[in-house]
Every structure is written in structure tokens, then in C-alpha cells.
Amino acid sequence: LDKIIKLKNLLKKYKLDGYFVPMADEFFCEYVPEQSRRLEFLTGFTGSAGSCLVGLKNSIFETDGRYELQAQSQVGSLFDKILITPKNNLINWLEQNINTKSVFKIGFDAKLISQKQLEKFENIANKNIKFVAISQNLVDEVWQTKPHQKPIEKLNQAFAIDTKIAGKTHIQKIAEMSESLQAEYCLLTLPESVCWLLNIRGRDLPHTPFLLGYGLINKKNKSVILYTNTKKISAGLSKKLGKNVELKNLEEMERDLKKLKNKSVQICPSNTSAYFYNLLQKSNVKIIHAADPCLLPKACKNTTEINGIRQAHIIDGVALCKFFYWLNNNIKTKKLDELNIADKLEEIRKNNKDFFSLSFDTIAGFGANGAIIHYRADKNSNKKISGNNLLLLDSGAQYFGANNTGTTDVTRTIAIGKPSTEQKRNFTLVLKGHIALANAKFIKGTNGSQLDVLARKFLWAEDKDYAHGTGHGVGHFFNVHEGPQGISKYNQTPLQAGMVISNEPGFYKAGEYGIRIENLVVVKQSKNDNFLEFETLTKAPIDLSLIDIAILDKSEKTWLNNYHAQIAKEIMPLLNKNEKAWLKNATKKIL
Ligand SMILES: [Mn+2]
Predict the structure, then answer these.
(1) 212: helix, coil or strand?
(2) pLDDT digits over 367-392, tens only?
(3) What is the Cα–Cα distance from 530 to 96, expressed in whole angstroms?
(4) Is 243 helix (H, G, I), strand (E, B) or coil?
(5) Which uninterrupted H or E stretch holds 143?
(6) 302 — pLDDT class (breaks 50, 70, 90)
(7) 359 CA to middle of ligand 1, Å?
(8) Are the C-beta atoms of residues 549 and 560 closer than 8 Å to each other?
(9) Distance (Å, rounded) from C-alpha 361 to C-alpha 376?
């Protein structure tokens, strides 16, 4: 609370009525590094989506439905109201509650909000509400004064991805991107695009191998300036990047952008900060709005990348099978809970020499906790795993090795004790949807929103559904949530060969249990040139004890038997004797 009081004192100093604090840092990634977790520092909120307005009179917190309960418990006492987006949001709240005749000034840091978000703010109906960019970040001002201590950015070394892993040199990529530009320059503001383009990775985020930085492509010269903390780039890496890539510190970017006067620069307003947008505008740069040109080619993996991803899934499948064998053997004798099984799974994955990191925090939710879609166990919520109920386990890893570089994300639901008839029925409905999507063949141009129903139709037939998308894109040793592809009620991006995507229908009964079956698939050319289909990448058995075989049709049984036979073939040779016996039973043919 004292931090909020200190911030309120600063409002008076800067003559503001309120100050807006977003979750994002200046790189707009899904995960935010420690030194930029301002919302968490200020409020104690640990979720991954949220923002707040600290006002002299009222203070408001907003987040989405996933974090409703968490926000209430973590920040409920600090704020007058918690808004759950998209139904309620800060703009609506301001319009309904601020009706002063005088100007109401809300300060913000223009580096931390996108131009698109600023435009939404500026379109607010009540024109007495003014959004004012403040160059000093007010949360940092609190964070940098004793007794608080803002963490210092770690100088994590970046590293190169060999062409044998990336399938294409960065020189080729730069040439192709330059070719595609609609302007003389392109400002890349997403670290994922910069890292993809230059075939580099970094260690700036715990689960995503990003080097945080920006890029400026020069179309004519087919060259790139990389703006980052150059202390993170070794002499060797700098040499590898060669003469087409110039390294500069972030502080130099502002001066360089001003020099682009009268030149045309392509940017994407939804991931370019209001700060840089404004700077370009003031410098008389011709701004051209376009989607980030790297995102689509990054999403469509080449054959080399797909081969690496396939192998990464075999390593991951081995770790999962070893874990399932261990779980099966220890469930009755050891005291297991959500936290210690997540640790055990991480320990097993780490045994592989090419393990790099987890790709997100493991979700291990037993019984009622499994029904919380983005659950993460902590000391208070941690449930013992015993009795009869379902264990939902969603986890993944990053692997980096000569032949097995890739990102995994897999969910299995496991029966602990004896499952109920109802649990088996719902699990089988989810499985039928999973198989229908895995088996789908579709004409080129089809998008995720057209396929989404395949995964839901069996649940819908019984008036059931799940409140999340069916699939998200996944990067190649990159972000576990990658755009623009996805399978959901809304995603309009046509699926293309090489896209990696999750297939993860589920069913959740609040207060009782959760079910989700998640595999990653890659889009590939079908025999007929006009059609596409999926190849399933994930290699982990699906719990046979949860299947109501009577409601599977012949083609569904065939899919499951083939899937399990493939796992047995690829994973078996990499297990010890006891684990082999377990896997043989777990992948036995159903009739
Ligand atoms: Mn997933």
C-alpha cells in the first residue's frame, strides 16, 4: 500500500489526476523480465495480463476472466474496483464514472503502450479526460527510491542459431524481407521478429529464448541495424552477424529514427510504442502501416526447422513417458502433490543434455484445480494427489541441439484412482474432437475459425463447450504462443504448410475436475496439391483408462491405435526395461 501512496504523491507533483500502469514493457512480449515487472512491483499481482489506473480519488484494476479470482485475492484490497475485460474495461469505466467539468489528466509512459492502444484512449467519448505522456516512468521513480530496489538487467549473452538448425541464413532472410517491404525502411519492434530474422536467440526471458531488442531494415542496402544492449553480443557473434548487421545500443535508436526525415518507414501500430510512433511523426517520416513482415514467414517453418521440432518432440516424449512410469509407481506409496510432481517432471526433462528451459510454468491441477484453465499451483492452492480424480498436466520445454531444436507444449489428463462414468464420457468427447481435428483435411485458404468446430462438435451435441481457443501457434525454439495462426472461433489467418499449432480441446467442471488433451501438429501438404492436413508432433500416450471405447467409431480407434503404435516405435528404444513395460501397456491396441 505504501508504494501506491508514494505514487499518489507523485501524481500531485506532476499535476495529474491518475496514472496508468500496464503489464507490458517496451518490447510487448507475453512475458516481462524481472526489471520491468512494474505492475507486479506496485500491486503484487503476478498474473500475465492486467493493468491499473492509480487515481487521487479512485484506483481501478483491470484483467481478463482467467485472472478474476487471483486479482481479487492479490489486489482486491488496494483497488476500488476490479474490471474484467473485455466485458468491462477502463475506458468504459472512465466514461461512466468521471464526469468532471474540468480536465481530468491521466499520465502514462508512452514507451509502454502501443500506438493502437493510445488511439483507443484518445477516442474516449468524454473529451475532458486527457491522456498525457510523462517522460519519467512514475513507477520507476518509486521503485528506485529506498527501501525499494529495482533489479538490474542481467547481461545475458545472446547466441547464434546455426544454418543447419535454422534452414536458412540470416543474409537470405534479410534479402527476402527487404524485397517484401512496402517502404524504404521497416522498424521491427518485436524481439521475436528481430531474433528470427538474424538467426539469434537470447536469455532475457525465463521461458522464451529472446534477446530483447529492435531492428531497422534498410530495403535498399539489404541490411539491418540491431538495437539492443550490445554488452550481450560477444565479439564472435558480432563477427558471425557480419557486415550486413550493425550493432547499436538502444539509446542510439532515437537519434537514428530522427535522421529518417522524409524517408518512408513501415511499422505495425499494434506493436509499436506510442513513443516511437510520435517520434517518427514529429521527425516528418512517411509512416506506412503494415503487419510485421517477419511474422508470417517465421510461422511457416521450413523443412530443417520441422525436422528439429519433430526430434524435440521425441526427446520430450521420452521425458513424459519416464515421468508417467514414475508417477504410476509412486502414486500409492509417496506423498505426491501438484508442486512436487511438476518439479519431478522438470528434473526428468533436464536430464536431456539439449534441454534449454521450460517453455512456460507447468500447470499441474488435480481435481477442482484442473478446472481452472490457467492454474498455477502455489503453497496455498497445492493439492495432494490421492483418491479418485483427474490430474491435468500441461507442460513444455525448449530444446536446443544440433538435430533437435524446438519448442514443445503438451497436456495430458490422467486418471488417479478410478474415474467416474461421467469423467470417462467427457474425456472421450474431448478425445473425439481432438481426433476429428488431427484427422482434418482442408482446402488451401481455410482458416482456424473454420476448423474450430471440428474439435467442439461432440461436446456441443451434449450442450457442453470450453472457454478457450482450440489451438495457438508455437514457434521454433521460440515463443510457445506464436501468431498469426490459431484455431479458435475468431482466427482468420489461412493455415499454411509449415505452421505449428496446438490441438487442445478440453472440458472443465468448475469445483470438480478439468480435462484437456493437447498435442502440437504441423500443417503439411496433402497428396492432392490443393489440400492441406496435419501431422501430429507430440509423442505421449493418451490415458486408455479414461476412454469410453463404446462411443469411439472405427476411424477414431484407428487414429488412436496408429498414434500409440508410432509412440511405441519411436519412444520405446529410448526407455529402460521397466519403463518399456509401462509404455507397452499404455499404448496397447484397443478393439
Ligand atoms: Mn498450449
Answers:
(1) coil
(2) 999 998 888 888 889 999 999 999 99
(3) 52
(4) coil
(5) helix 138-143
(6) very high
(7) 10
(8) no
(9) 7
Q: What is the mean pLDDT of the chain?
A: 96
Whole-number Å distance, alpha carbon 337 to ligand 1 midpoint, is 22
Cα(351)–Cα(370) distance, integer angstroms: 27
Ligand 1 centroid distance, CA of 538 (Å): 12
The C-alpha atoms of residue 28 and residue 268 are separated, in whole angstroms, by 12
What is the distance of C-alpha 469 from the center of its chain?
Answer: 13
Q: What is the pLDDT at residue 376?
A: 87
Provide the 3-class DSSP secondary structure of residue 267. Answer: strand
CA–centroid distance, residue 294 to ligand 1 (Å):
22
CA of 361 to the centre of ligand 1 (A): 12
Q: Reduced to 3 states, what is the DSSP secondary structure of residue 508?
A: strand
DSSP string spanning 521-582?
EEEEE-SSTTEEEEEE-------GGG--GGG--HHHHHHHHHHHHHHHHHHGGGS-HHHHHH
Instruction: Please count the other Cβ atoms lying within 10 Å of the Cβ belonging to residue 346.
Output: 18
Q: At what angle do helices 421-438 and 448-460 cross, to 10 degrees?
A: 150
Inter-residue long-range contacts of 567-571, CB under 8 Å, 24+ positions, other chains counted: 567/317, 567/539, 567/540, 567/541, 570/314, 570/317, 570/539, 571/314, 571/317, 571/318, 571/321, 571/539
For the chain, state the CA radius of gyration: 25
Q: How far is the CA of 543 from the centre of ligand 1 (A)?
A: 18
Percent with pLDDT over 90 in the chain? 94
Rounded to two decimals, the pTM is 0.95
Nearest to 365 by CA among 545, 540, 511, 465: 511
Q: Which residues contact 161 (CB under 8 A, 6 or more apart)?
A: 199, 200, 201, 405, 477
Per DSSP, the three-state class of 277 is helix
3-state secondary structure 347-372: HHHHCCCCEEEECCCCEEEEHHHHHC
Cα 56 to middle of ligand 1, angstroms: 40
Q: How far is the CA of 504 from the centre of ligand 1 (A)?
A: 7
Report helix, strand or coil for 422.
Answer: helix
Contacts 24+ apart (CB under 8 A), 322-328: 322/348, 322/575, 322/579, 323/348, 324/412, 324/414, 324/540, 324/541, 324/582, 324/586, 325/575, 325/578, 325/579, 325/582, 325/583, 327/414, 328/582
User: What residues pair up with 389 in beta bridges, in sequence order?
Assistant: 416
